[in-house]
Amino acid sequence: MKKFMVGMAVAAALALGAHVAAQRSPVTLNVYSEGDVNVQDLWQKSLIPMYQKANPNVRLNLVFSSHGAGNQSTLDRMAAAQKAGKVSGVDLLEGPVDDAGAAGLMDKLDAKKVPNLTRTDPKVVQRVQGYGVPYRGSSVVLAYDSTKVKNPPRTLPALLDWINKNPGQFTYNTPDTGGSGNAFVTRLLRTGISAKDSDLFETDYDPAMEKQWDKGFATLKALAPKLYGGGQYSKNNVETLQLLGKGAITMGPVWSDMGLSYLKQGLLPDTIKLTQIDPPLYGGASYVGVAKDSPNKAAAYAFLNWLLTPGVQAVVVDRMNGYPGVKLQYMGKDVQAKFGDIAGDFSFGFSSKFGADMNRLWYERVAGTPQPQQR
């Protein structure tokens, strides 16, 4: 039944996209993307065949960068083309659209160009200054063993209280080895940051402001003896999931897409549940934008609009175990039910410079050791 419903939704999405993106003459869109093999499969096995079937005059040519290794060369190519007054050959870019936009290499998007952009969260779009559409996402959430925890903590104070009352049953990975542990540390440090300075920590840098982290670091230091094994941290995102899977811990922060993927594969027992706390842990979206020098902007806009239709978003959710790029209210009831407890909201992480300082100071002030040079 699920496959049938997704198929019907896809058919509807294809029909919607067909008349919007139809081209009078053949056009090729060069799509530069990045990520792991699952992202590559999403493009090659799902998105590209679906779109080309509905739009036979549009060819999507995927140029894939494994783990983003080719991102800088792509940006350099775009910048060199701009300087020379030539066309770079990049039409659509998934990845660092904000950096490319800041360098004047991306087209600014709005609802006139991509009407379905109105279905996304404006705050998420603004994170990249409007240079891309969010087509999928994930966030760090709280995973717990529902056989041992009937009423999981829903707030940060309640979570800290639970950890203190259940020694050895919680841990997180060191903040420089994975986003799930990093998000937990970031949330604790935010407890001392004034509301007026919150945006500064996300987008700017002033080391003098780091004194506002004192409260959070003190809490993390006091919490250490209550963690798994009397103060042991997991090595990375995966090890937290593994500890949950074998029952060594009862609760821990995990990435939503990784947690859902592990549950789908049976790598976690179905008794492990996911929830979000308030205020939420951080998350983020993956964006696709249009190159400023693309000669095929009309076709690119049409593709992005199609990418945000419910049927296509349902396929993205199914393949990636991630959140849809559009608000949940625009998705089917099955997707709403799947993500209703975790995808309501997420916060944002610190800027890269603040993040680097946070990692270093965590080792000094919490772990009591210098940060390893290589992990």
UniProtKB/TrEMBL annotation:
Pfam families on file: SBP_bac_8
InterPro entries: SBP (IPR006059)
UniProt keywords, alphabetically: Plasmid, Signal
Record bears the keyword Transferase: no
Keyword Signal: yes
Signal peptide location: 1-21
SUPFAM superfamilies, per the entry: Periplasmic binding protein-like II
Protein name as catalogued: ABC transporter substrate-binding protein
